[in-house]
Design goal:
This protein has 205 residues and is α+β, with helices and mostly antiparallel strands. It has four helices and 13 strands. The protein folds into three domains: 33-101, Alpha-Beta Plaits; 110-134; 151-204, Nucleic acid-binding proteins (OB fold (Dihydrolipoamide Acetyltransferase, E2P), Beta Barrel), CATH 2.40.50. Strand 12 (184-192) and strand 13 (197-204) form a beta hairpin. Helix 3 (56-67) packs across helix 4 (88-101). The termini are far apart. Bound molecules: zinc ion (ZN). Zinc ion (ZN) binds at residues 103, 105-106, 108, 124, 126-127, 129.
Amino acid sequence: MDEQNYTDLLKKVKSSVQKREEMKRFQIPKPETITEGKLTIIKNFRDIVGVINRDESHIYKYLIKQFGLSGDVADGRLIFKGKPPEGSIEKAFQEYLRIYVQCYECGNFDTEMIRENRNELIRCKACGAERPLFAHKEIKYTEGKIEEGKTYDLEITDLNRDGDGISIKGDTTVIIPGAKKGQKVTVRIDRIRKNYALGILVKKA
Ligand SMILES: [Zn+2]
């Protein structure tokens, strides 16, 4: 191998390592919860906030509202005055990530909230896609994991940049080419990827 090729190869390896490092950074910590008397405390609140790059008080207010409790942020910990139902804190965090953080194109969480002509947008630092902040505001959280090859009745709640329909099923964003916003459709799940599933339009309602 000549020297030029070797240098190119080194560059390639380096950039792939860097990419992996970036992915690692976006391992979002799970909320660590403890109780002290009547208080429920998320010990690592500030760590989570730091990773997802959103305003601390924004996340705080969102969570407080979900549980109808009062609370406080002190020393990087979020303190609820009361006890949210078992498992609900984690679920509320996931919901927050879906609404305010996640890119609907590539699934990445490395995004920023920006304001453009009075609209708030989520811009992905990984793929450059943008979406309106409240694209999924009306979505009700539904239980259930999806499986490849199975069919589901879904409602198209949004479109992605390519004009493909988007629906949320449980924890998964389903992308359905050819479906239009507002349609109720039957979809067969073709492929499940880490951050989304690809659905084939079987029937329009
Ligand atoms: Zn993206």
